[in-house]
């Protein structure tokens, strides 16, 4: 990852939003703000989109140009210090693309995740062998040591499921193809599905299956996605806007505009409503484990 992207993503995004709001209230364009600060427009854009950490001095200067009061400036300067903090995953910086760094930071901060997967078991629920098969296939020519580091990163992320302090509530809907498609060999699939049954017993995790017989549903049109929701702060507002994460072959997309979020929230509710309930899903997966072990 580039140095400018180091530090904690969530505080960077929060600080960027506050500074953008201050600039807009001051009725300054990005160009005008850049001229007043003697910075480039690209730097302003990187700051406002949370792509770089900031020094307290820079925040103080921006607040002065934007006409912010001393109390607000002090609070934002304190927030700037948090943008320097690094999460546990930064020790894997050599194998994490920037877009995944953003996602892991948001995942760690979320209070709820709603996940629809049409093709593969989500990373938070994968076994080592299943993850190793996927990562090896996706990275041909990469040496075994790097593959193992990527696998271990994925497994370490799973501590989120059982962390002592406020583990997020997670709702997962898996298309039947996830259960039927062989990834690796029969043993890998059997162990992976058995793992789904084990983690499905966690009080904060619900796993459902969307069987083929349900036919058309919103997931067919939406494709896989994750909806992340965040804690409420002292003012009654979420610390981060609800965000939709869509992972693609060459990168990722983050959506947080209200009309975008509303559409995906409606889609997930439709998908969840059309899927098997938790008890029926457990039986479906348990039967599949037996089939894979024959």
Automatic annotation (TrEMBL):
<dbReference type="Pfam" id="PF13560">
    <property type="entry name" value="HTH_31"/>
</dbReference>
<dbReference type="InterPro" id="IPR043917">
    <property type="entry name" value="DUF5753"/>
</dbReference>
<protein>
    <submittedName>
        <fullName>Helix-turn-helix domain-containing protein</fullName>
    </submittedName>
</protein>
<dbReference type="InterPro" id="IPR001387">
    <property type="entry name" value="Cro/C1-type_HTH"/>
</dbReference>
<dbReference type="InterPro" id="IPR010982">
    <property type="entry name" value="Lambda_DNA-bd_dom_sf"/>
</dbReference>
<feature type="domain" description="HTH cro/C1-type">
    <location>
        <begin position="19"/>
        <end position="72"/>
    </location>
</feature>
<dbReference type="Pfam" id="PF19054">
    <property type="entry name" value="DUF5753"/>
</dbReference>
């Amino acid at each position: 990852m580039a140095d400018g992207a180091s530090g904690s993503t969530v505080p960077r995004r929060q600080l960027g939003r506050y500074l953008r709001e201050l600039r807009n209230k001051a009725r300054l364009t990005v160009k005008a703000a850049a001229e007043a600060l003697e910075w480039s427009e690209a730097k302003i854009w990187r700051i406002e989109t949370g792509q770089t950490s900031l020094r307290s001095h820079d925040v103080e200067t921006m607040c002065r140009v934007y006409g912010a009061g001393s109390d607000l400036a002090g609070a934002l300067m304190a927030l700037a210090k948090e943008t320097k903090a690094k999460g546990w995953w930064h020790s894997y910086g050599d194998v994490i693309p920037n877009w995944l760094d953003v996602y892991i930071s948001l995942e760690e901060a979320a209070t709820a995740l709603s996940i629809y997967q049409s093709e593969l078991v989500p990373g938070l629920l994968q076994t080592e062998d299943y993850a190793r098969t996927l990562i090896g296939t996706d990275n041909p020519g990469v040496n075994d040591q790097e593959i193992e580091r990527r696998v271990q990163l994925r497994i370490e992320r799973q501590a989120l499921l059982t962390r002592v302090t406020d583990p997020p509530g997670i709702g997962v809907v898996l298309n039947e193809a996830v259960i039927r498609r062989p990834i690796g060999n029969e043993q890998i699939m059997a162990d992976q599905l058995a793992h789904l049954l084990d983690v499905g017993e966690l009080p904060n995790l619900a796993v459902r299956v969307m069987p083929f017989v349900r036919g058309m549903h919103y997931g067919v049109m939406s494709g896989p996605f994750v909806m992340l929701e965040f804690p409420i702060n002292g003012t009654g507002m979420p610390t981060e806007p609800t965000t939709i994460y869509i992972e693609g072959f060459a990168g990722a997309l983050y959506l947080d505009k209200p009309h975008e979020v509303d559409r995906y929230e409606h889609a997930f509710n439709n998908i969840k409503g059309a899927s098997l309930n938790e008890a029926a899903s457990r039986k479906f997966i348990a039967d599949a484990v037996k089939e894979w072990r024959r």
